[in-house]
Amino acid sequence: MSEITVKRNVAPVAKKALFLLFRIGSERYALRATEVAEVLPRLPLKPIARAPAWVAGVFAYRGTVVPVIDLSALTFGQSAEARTSTRLVLVHYRPDESLPEQRLGLILEQATDTLRCDPQEFQPYGLDNRQAPYLGPVREDAQGLVQWVRVNDLLDEAVRALLFPVPPLDPAQLEARP
């Protein structure tokens, strides 16, 4: 008896990614789950003097002081509503490969759902919004549009210098420099 080989037309399996969904007002946004370190309840914060209004403050987390920004205030100028679904989301922040990764806290409303989809389903939306470079492509589904927020593009250089100051070199490091 001879073997018969049947070839099936099998579509390549798309790589699915997990996203954390949240809202700013009535609009939906997403963070890639690989950028999320931890989701915490909203915690009391110590304000930072003379920081932009959307910098909510800092808190101590496992021996490190972590800066927190209110994404609603950054994006639309209104603080996130204090709801039971408002979360403090710790993200991996690394705007430059030459710098070490930092923790950054984000206050996010209704950060309770996830989405699993192919990242290629997010498409450019045709606007060059230089005031909000962190707002990435959009994806349409039955509930409307959801926009991808790029963590590493959240802070401009001035705010990054305020929240993540570079420690001065100690004298031994200065002597070792060429």
Automatic annotation (TrEMBL):
GO terms for cellular component: cytosol. GO terms for biological process: chemotaxis; signal transduction. Residues 16-160 form the CheW-like domain. InterPro entries: CheW (IPR039315), CheW-like_dom_sf (IPR036061), CheW-lke_dom (IPR002545). SUPFAM superfamilies: CheW-like. PROSITE patterns: CHEW (PS50851). It comes from the Bacteria. Gene3D superfamilies: CheA-289, Domain 4, SH3 Domains. This is Chemotaxis protein CheW.
